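WARN  no MSA supplied for this record, continuing single-sequence
INFO  ligand: adenosine-5'-diphosphate
INFO  echoing inputs
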Amino acid sequence: MKIKTKITLGVGLLFLMIVILSVISAVYISKQKSDTQKILTANYNSLEYSKNMMLALDKISADATQIQTFRKNLALESRNITEIGEKDSYQDAVAHFENFLKTRNPESEKLIRNDLAEIMRLNMNAIVQKSDKAIATAQTATTWVISLGTICFIIAFTLLFNLPDNIARPIRELTESIKQIASGNYHERVHFRGSAEFEDLANSFNSMAEKLDEYQSSSLSKQLMDKKRVEMLISNMHDPVIGLDEKNQINFINDEALKISGLVREELIGKTAPEIAVNNDLLRELLRNAALEEKSEAPMKIFADNKESYFEQEIIPISIIPTGETEKKDAGKVILLRNITAYKELDFAKTNFIATVSHELKTPISSMKMGTQLLKNEKFGMLNEQQKELLRSIEEDGERLLDITGELLNLSQAESGNIRLNFTDCNVSALVNAAISNNAVIAENKEIEILTDFRTRESDTVKADFDKTVWVLNNFLTNAIKHSGAGQKIIISTERIKDKVRFSVQDFGKGIDPKYHSRIFDRYFQVPEDYLSGTGLGLAISKNFIEKQGGEIGLESEINKGSTFWMML
Ligand code: ADP
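INFO  complex generated
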């Protein structure tokens, strides 16, 4: 049955009972009232008249007015005859009174008194009878009221004890089940019987729980599938991958990573990466780099695939925003090692090729230069102007070729590690002056003034390879002259920073767009807008020379304001 019908029926029945109870009570009370009224008018008044007549009769011999009183009461009694036999007694009393008035003898007075006594007796009897009837009516009313009251009480009691529980119990059960569902127990079901509404509610709830259950198991299997797919993908990758969680525990590691690190998968279970790294050099280095959270520039040399292999390490920090939160949370990191051995091998081959070619070219170019020198000698014959011009151009090209082969040889030596550094205590001012004297002529030709700003002491030295360092300063200075306008200034300054010396060459030329700064030290790079003569190798070689000596190199430049190339040793 519907809960609404139950409430309607219960309350309705109670209401009906109360109405019936009220009606019955009203009916009986009014009946009681009319009975009392009847006794009063029909019998009590007759008794009163009879009593008055008796009293008048007592005084009638002494007081003639009492005849009138008697008659008046007799007339009133004539209008109030209600009982059986009362009328006869009344008529007798009238006849006996008339007789008394004529005879005035005590016999007839006695008869009157008998008649009046009879009237009084009849009325008294009637009062007793009516009173009994009224008592019976009151008793019936009481019975009715008690019965109906009991029924009302039972209904109200039933409603009071059953209805709240009937409503509250399913709500309580439902709340409990919702809590279960919220905590992930999708197997929870509810069963309500006896109330159509709650049965409907239970059915809806159960179908919702069933769908959630189905959704959860389907999404769980989907997630498991996705997880497996990602794991397969990672394990099939040719590059080693290691995943660490936020507690530095190894979350996943692919076969390649196991192979190069010499680790065994079973030994990793339940251990943190630093614990494993205690006995594993590679993992130790990887973790050290991961802690720095920056991509290391130099590739890692690892023995893998039965040869020396090169790997580029990349650390990818993982952060997630948990559901319902706004702040990002650290979820660990992925260490990716990219195998660049093939590129490195190609690079070596290219460097060796360049080194061989430039070395092989040096001798024929030098002999070509010597040939041109000899041709210029007038002892071997006179040259006309055209021939002289041709010879000059051949000489210039030879010079350029020699420069290029020299730079290429320098670069390939530096890159292949075949560079031999001769570290000595080099005087700072001597390094600068050597570079200046090398460029004095070309500076003069362009009317450029080279100024020095030594903020180091005369005796200050740096541990460096003198020739290579002068080569770098030379390159800075040549570039500065090349990119300065005629008549401009160039400032070479030196300055001590902690235990190092910074050399900088500042020009006031056209400057370099910041978008090229990161590539300016790359091999063969030249600023696209100004392809002047050059190879784009000078700064790459400079970087190599300085870094090989444990120094740093850099630039500060703004367009139209000039550039400052610096190195720190
Ligand atoms: P290059 O042989 O071309 O001079 P570098 O490696 O020495 O090779 O220089 C690379 C490029 O950097 C140059 O081509 C030039 O565009 C730019 N560059 C170097 N120095 C300066 C400078 N002082 N002012 C402006 N541009 C410069």
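Residues 226 and 441 are 71 Å apart (CA to CA).
INFO  checksum written, moving to next record
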